[in-house]
Write a structure and sequence with these properties.
10 strands, Immunoglobulin-like, four-stranded antiparallel sheet, 2 helices, alpha+beta
């Protein structure tokens, strides 16, 4: 029971680390009421369908572009609005935050070779843990948009947690070793 309790406590601690995403990095601009279509309502009147787009103004777009997040409000097509306070706040908050887009590959990986991290920003620190909380020693080699990590020792098969610290954000990824 003790190892299971430790594992649950350790995994739940990642929710605390995720709070690093509350730092807002960008100023934003919002384009409102962009028409994307027309529809006939239940009374036979034509109505414009509009959307609002919020995006950062003081950043540079990476060559891979920028992620798109769609926030669709509910209301069962009878009630609700894109101008609802919580919808507006959510849209604007997503646009203000720094994007940390990370991809580990190959995943699953081989126990002797290591893995690569594709990200537009190099992390300040990378830590690999096994599920017992032990740190796995790695060696990092960074190039533009890619970090290569090799294991300093052969690993046993299993699941590992990779923590990437970007300073303003911390990202947790699962790595499987076959």
């Amino acid at each position: 029971m003790r190892p299971a309790a430790f594992l649950m406590l350790w995994l739940s601690s990642f929710a605390v680390f995720a709070q690093d995403y509350i730092q807002q990095s960008y100023s934003i601009k919002t384009d409102k009421n962009i028409e994307y279509g027309k529809v006939e309502d239940f009374a036979g009147n034509m109505r414009s369908l509009t959307l609002d787009v919020s995006y950062p103004t003081n950043d540079s777009v990476e060559s891979c572009g920028r992620p798109l997040i769609l926030i669709v409000h509910g209301g069962g097509f009878v009630a609700g609005s894109k101008d609802n306070g919580s919808i507006v706040r959510m849209r604007e908050d997503f646009a203000k935050h720094d994007d940390v887009n990370v991809r580990l590959f190959p995943n699953p990986t081989d126990p002797t070779t290591g893995f690569n991290i594709h990200t537009p920003h190099a992390p300040e620190q990378i830590i690999v843990f096994d599920l017992m909380g032990r740190v796995v020693p790695i060696e990092m080699h960074a190039t533009e948009n890619n970090v290569s990590c090799t294991f300093k020792q052969d690993l046993i098969r299993g699941t590992y947690m990779v923590v990437l610290d970007f300073g303003s954000a911390r990202v947790h990824k699962r790595l499987v070793v076959n």
